[in-house]
Amino acid sequence: MTMNESLLPAIEQVVRNVEQVIVGKRHVIVLSFTALLAKGHVLLEDVPGVGKTMLVRALAKSFQAELKRIQFTPDLLPSDVIGVSVYNPKERQFEYKPGPIVAHIVLADEINRTSPKTQSALLEAMEEGSVTVDGITRALPQPFFVMATQNPIEYEGTYPLPEAQLDRFLLKLQMGYPSADEEIELLHRLEKMKPLEEIGPVMTLDELRALQQKVADVHVSDTVKRYIVELVRQSRAHEAVYLGVSPRGSVALMKAAQAYALIHGRDFVIPDDIQQLAPYVLAHRLLVRPEAKWDKLDAKTILSELMARTPVPVQGRR
Fold it and tell me: What integer pLDDT is reported at residue 155 of this predicted model?
């Protein structure tokens, strides 16, 4: 199985819509949609100018969803993200003024440029789908999807995301540079028009919510669940790993696999789904020992090793 496997017609329409803006990154679009259907969130780590922001905007336009952008800076406060209560003298009471986190799709741009205190303001929103201001908890709009970006080369003035924050992202993706042909195609498209202004909605929010509900109905056999657990448990025992994948990571991999199977028109998960998704779901949840880096071991290399030595179960239809 590959990322080129045929998709459900409705989802194929969304992917092609986004592809009018983002050239040659079909796998990233499909994986982003996987996270959206699984009610998870995405961390995009890559150099500037490869289309991270355009991807989020194109997704939002495909569903006519409300999009808010938060530019994370060192002086950003938690209240700038989740909102504040302001006293209304006419009504003689405090009123909640929503922050930019209150939207269907939130672009958290350069998330690692703000302090850990402000980063933590996202935790409740990403995990619970709600925000708490002055002791009052308010539900966020549904669907709620955060796509955060960070630059891997600009280390000055950044704050590394803590493990608790990384664990909240279902997938960690990289866009990568386009090929020469893809970059030429991009120049052709941008020569006389702006593709983002040309696309419109191809799926309603109600249809998106219905697809999200169907994810839970995708069957995961005991065999596949054992395969997930075996991968995760081996990560905890690896000699080069300081902190292995948590049980939250096991659940995340299963949920992502359910959404991935649905996208490809199946009502059951197969081991190939796990193999396709594991690098994007698990790698950022591994904390590698500092001394292992001298041996050029990183999380992706270790995960590839674990997958290679973990027997793949034979799985057919349920």
Answer: 56
Q: Are 175 and 28 in contact (CB under 8 A)?
A: yes
Extended strands (E) in 238-305: 241-243, 287-288
Same domain membership, residue 149 and residue 259: no
Give me the mean pLDDT over the 286-311 stretch: 83
| In-domain check, residue 92 | no
Evaluate whether 260 touches 37 at the Cβ level (below 8 Å). no
Tally Cβ neighbours within 10 Å of residue 89: 6
pTM of this structure: 0.88
Taking the mean position of all CA atoms in its chain, how far away is CA 97? Answer: 27
Asked if residues 67 and 107 have their Cβ atoms less than 8 Å apart, the reply is yes
User: Position of tokens 């080369």?
Assistant: 153
Measured CA angle at 23 (ends 304, 173), to 5 deg: 30
Q: Is residue 272 part of a domain?
A: yes
List of residues 6+ apart from 225 with CB closer than 8 A: 254
Count of CA atoms in the C-beta half-sphere (13 A) of 297: 19
> Are both 179 and 248 inside the same structural domain?
no
Q: Which of 10, 21, 25, 69 is nearest to 173 (CA)?
A: 25
> Is 20 part of a structural domain of the chain?
yes
Query: 115 versus 66: which is more confidently predicted?
Result: 66
Domain of 38, in residue numbers: 9-74+104-122+139-208
- Indicate whether 187 and 239 sit together in one domain: no
Q: Domain boundary residue among 189, 208, 227?
A: 208
Tell me if 1 is assigned to some domain.
no
- The rounded distance, in Å, linking the Cα atoms of 22 and 54 is 7
Q: Which residue from 248, 250, 246, 305 is spatially nearest to 274, judged by alpha carbons?
A: 250
